Amino acid sequence: MTAPVSPIEWQVMAAASAVLVVLTATGLWPMSWVEVAGFATAATCVWLMARGHRWTWPFGIVSNLAYGALFFEARLYADMALQGLFIALSVYGWRVWAGSGTAQPPPVRRASRGEWLALLILVPAATVVIREILLRVNGAAPLLDALTTSLSLAAQYLASRRRLENWLLWIAADLIYIPLYFSRSLPLTAFLYVGFLVMCVIGWRQWRQEQVS
Hints:
By secondary structure, this protein is an all-alpha fold. It has one domain. About 75% of the residues lie in helices and about 0% in strands. The chain has helices spanning about 5-25, 35-50, 55-75, 75-100, 115-135, 140-160, 165-185, 185-210. Helix 5 packs antiparallel against helix 6 (about 140-160). The longest helix is centred in the middle third of the chain and has 24 residues, at about 115-135. It is globular, with a radius of gyration of 17 Å. The two termini are about 15 Å apart.
């Protein structure tokens, strides 16, 4: 069973977003409005994902659009392109979760051997290919950018299929993203990924309780 999102939780998420808007508008914590939008919607998306709520997908799409623009400015081109792929996978995930025919998303299951084999082949291969592309376009941190891109795509696919192990891949990616974004002068996004790391642990525990096989 999916853990419902209470009205209080919605209010807390709205209040946190409002605080960011006020801090930016008053100049107390000067940030890009695009980064604020990406931060607020991405944090909401991950929290809803952990709770198994279908609204995770539209919030995720809005976040992807915001971060696509932000990463272009930071010359993290793989992360920018990744947002487009995330949007496609979010549409897919939205359809899969809605296709269960009930108010609940599909049950949580472990990834199959076939899925793991495909990921063990595709993630390293994609990392090598993406790194070479980034080197040619003068991308920042090409290896780390390529690796996190590959891990994130794999994690997003597993999440759309409600596979428990998606959280492990997100945790691995987040541990790389945090220092990477600090190094690219994106402190708010780096702090966001610290929050993501915590929410991924919560999501792992929540989904493991719901796992059926």
